[in-house]
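Box S1 | Example of a co-folding query
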Amino acid sequence: MKILVCDKIAPEALEELKKLGEVVFKTGMEPEELKKEIADADVAVVRSATKLRREIIEAAKNLKLIVRAGIGLDNIDLDAAKEKGIEVRNTPAATSISVAELVFAHMLAAARMLPMAYTSMKAHKWEKKLFQGFELYGKTLGIIGFGRIGREVAKRAICFGMKVLWYDVVDVETDIEAKRVSFDELLSSSDFITLHVPLLPQTKYMINSETISKMKDGVVLVNAARGGVVEEKAVLEALESGKIAFYCVDVFEKEPTDNFALIDHPKVIPTPHIGASAKEGQFRAGMEVVRIVREFFS
Ligand code: NAD
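Box S1 (continued) | Returned holo structure for nicotinamide-adenine-dinucleotide
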């Protein structure tokens, strides 16, 4: 069995995969090389970097299983895979805590202006008066999408003494002390808003100039979901007007992003899609990939 690993996964998982078949581990392949390598592969393992578009999937003659080490499947042409009878699996729970912790890193970075204080001190300045921030304690956090990551964020917010509101299109059974509200109530009542929905036609640009206008003045917006959920142009305008105080962002409409007007804005705290990039999350995701491959072929 040939297992083609196209993106970096935990080294422990690579070792385990080698016990199941011949592992070819190549990252950053151009489409032509990827087509050649995938032609005789039985399994393809990807994270988010490798795009398994239709032409790539059609070049695969033996492929039976695609495993995405992580959550989002938007880099895989699911229709093309289905037409060829290729099973597509992911590891949805493995990195939820990693992403939730990044959301807190972002919220604290905004509240205490850490990136700005860091840049100032690295320029050998002592601008103590510029960096009076605010606490998370007592603030209202609105969570849009109360799935695995949204709920992990909620649990942590409660420990910080935040009041938690959530909005979702489905009923979520939970004993977390958080209040379900309408989308509009969440927008108008939250000091911090964090997005945890998948990118779907229904969620595309759900944060736009109209929905931003319903938010509190000086809201902190966090996006560690998907770039297309937020209209970057509308956020930039709201940052300019002061409607949004900080935009904490891990995911972009285009990746790598070339929206430098956004990145260069002083109230934008950007990270390059690293939500799931914590050692423990990647270890869990890698081991889950191994389990999926083993079970699929047994
Ligand atoms: P999940 O499926 O457990 O939860 C998503 C929730 O969103 C569900 O409860 C769903 O009902 C809800 N939802 C769907 N459409 C909605 C809508 N129109 N309005 C309101 N709610 C809606 O997924 P998850 O594991 O919590 O992950 C959420 C998203 O986070 C993923 O889809 C992925 O895009 C993103 N993600 C980002 C990173 C990163 O590195 N930044 C890592 C992992 C996942």
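The CA atoms of residues 26 and 33 lie 10 Å apart. The chain has two domains: 2-90+279-297, 96-270.
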